[in-house]
Design goal:
The protein has 180 residues and is mostly beta strands. It is built from two helices and twelve strands, in the order ββββββββββαβαβ. It is 12% helix and 36% strand.
């Protein structure tokens, strides 16, 4: 049997000792004590943060209503989506692809993308590696009560203020907001 291939930096290095300061993390998406935030009309529940994963990744449960989803953007980290319910149209480097429940999509770092729910409602898991995107969502989002709480409808002025805040903070979170 052939030997597993490893990047040169990982070849023949011993596995580090167990870090006993790290604990098992369990997360129920319906736990009211989890952070639930409304962002761009969607409701995001932060299941696992960088604080829980030693900065390696964050995991977000996203409920995306009809016509919901972020505008065009890109960031210097990987982003993976696993669609649990519904259908989402991903636009990746200007090419549209409809993704159905059960499908996993990976967005490579630095690639322009966005997604839109063209159906009634969709739910997906989003994993970002390394972590950090969850902190951006906490900084720009509005707290809501639960994973199933609808995002409040902003007034035009509130929407304008939100976009200014998001644009100002995005670079701190390794994200670039792009023109539609």
């Amino acid at each position: 049997m052939p030997e597993p291939q490893h990047p040169p930096s990982q070849a023949r290095q011993p596995i580090p000792a167990d870090d006993l300061t790290r604990k098992l993390s369990l997360s129920d998406p319906d736990d009211p004590s989890l952070p639930h935030v409304a962002v761009v009309g969607d409701t995001y529940t932060l299941l696992l943060s960088g604080a829980q994963t030693n900065g390696k990744y964050c995991l977000i449960d996203m409920t995306v209503p009809q016509c919901g989803g972020p505008g065009p953007h890109r960031h210097d980290f990987e982003e993976m989506f696993h669609l649990l319910e519904g259908e989402i149209e991903f636009t990746f480097r200007s090419e549209k692809t409809v993704v159905k429940a059960g499908t996993t999509a990976n967005i490579p770092a630095n690639a322009p993308h966005f997604f839109t729910n063209m159906g009634k409602s969709a739910r997906m898991l989003c994993l970002c590696t390394p972590a950090g995107m969850e902190e951006f969502f906490l900084a720009i989002g509005k707290p809501v009560d639960s994973r199933t709480s609808p995002a409040p409808k902003p007034t035009p002025q509130e929407q304008q203020e939100f976009m200014k805040k998001a644009a100002a903070l995005a670079p701190q979170y390794r994200t670039e907001l792009l023109k539609p």
